[in-house]
Amino acid sequence: MTAMRPNYDAPRLRKLDVEHHIHPFSNNRELADNGGGRIFSRAEGVYIYDLDNRRYLDGMAGLWCVNVGYGREALVEVAARQMRELPYYSSFFGGTTPPTVELAAKLVELMPKGSGLDHMLFANSGSEANDTVVRLVRHYFNLVGKPKKKAFIARRFGYHGSTMASGSLGNWGIMHSQADLPLPGFHHVAAPYGFENGRGKDPEAFGLEAARWIEAKILELGAENVAAVIGEPVQGAGGVIVPPRSYWPEVERICRKHEVLLVSDEVICGFGRTGNWFGFETLGFTPDIATMAKGLSSGYMPISAVAVHERIAKPLIDEGYWLHGFTYSGHPVAAAVALKNIEILQEEKLPQKVKTDTGPYFAEKLQTLAKNPIVGEVRTCGLLGGIELVADKATGKRFEPAGRAGSICRERCFAHGLVMRASFETMVLSPPLTITRAQIDELVGAAAKALDDTAAELKQ
Ligand code: PXG
User: Fold this and answer.
1) Is the CB of 267 under 6 A from ligand 1?
2) Is the entire prediction scored with pTM above 0.85?
3) CA dist 77 to 1, 269, 274, 337, Å?
4) Is 434 in the pocket of ligand 1 (CB under 6 A)?
5) Top-level CATH class of 76-347?
6) CA of residue 237 to ligand 1 center, whole Å
């Protein structure tokens, strides 16, 4: 990097942060009391640097998104080139731009052959993509003469975004109580979360049992009223909940049987994270609709997409006008960056690398943490990892008060130069897909120290 680094005034920025910035998903009271947030100003590869020039291995790839790692000049160049040529034009009223069209075609090409996922809609975030799905599915069932089919079924610990509809699809933390959600028509069933609700059961039998909770909900609501089931192939923000292999194929069978659409939220699992281009490929099902964001541009630009099956796209197209979209749907700079990002993922074979090399190595190394006295379970899928913190290994009893052990561990990780997030009592990991074996060793080494520190602090 040749660019001069700006000389930031850290105390001033932290003061302004407290005075004028409300942080998303943060304890803003605590931030104000502690003099502001952590400010990061640069990054390279898998490392990020704060204003004091302290280096951290970013075990979260930002917020599960920087799949190709930081410092990619090729992405910077493509964005600058597109900004010079055409910084913005809309896809409303029949217009569009070259990168937007190329990206739609490229994404269709990435879908598994025979999946029928052959049309794309664009938006700017995962929340907007999932919100778009809610509108699209409601419109679709009106168009095909089944206007009663409107209910959505999702899972506990699911995270699908923060808008009113995507927040209603999710069922995570106190998001519902903070805005009187869910809206009418959104229903939830328990997650295929073996550590919570399948202890002592055969995992594959438990997977089938958990899938049938969805069928029970469909029957309770009446299949004629149910539009869609949505889920993350592996639940990310909820704690890297990896379902048994039997789960998703059975959910797919149930959805087909009751003529309920199946929506795969690929916002975290997409673009190589689980060792395939999409999480549904790893987990063994084919959805009717897939939403994607994050890894689509590796976070270098905000962009999201919704892939729809031709069966759903056709009536929508035949109807004529589709009155939905955002000013920046299919933004040319974001689309150009996404295209280049996909090219990097392809050229460096990052999904395959996760499947055959770094994913298995990460799984093996992370499992060594399972022997720590405060670890109840270690789960992985590709380069997603979850570490359950427990007060009692034998019973799986959690620490009290809820959330404290996770926050301590997160702080201890920072002290050891690692960013690892806490999702309630689960420590979660999602490093850049470019992480090397040596960097995985470094990550696991720092996590082990942080866990020891956490155990010592909790004992006091
Ligand atoms: N679906 C999934 C599966 C996600 O993880 C969204 C949708 C929403 O995307 P946008 O781009 O609107 O944020 C997400 C986002 C966390 C955390 O606590 C995770 C997300 C967002 C905020 C916090 O790990 N994921």
Assistant:
1) yes
2) yes
3) 13, 27, 28, 9
4) no
5) alpha beta
6) 7
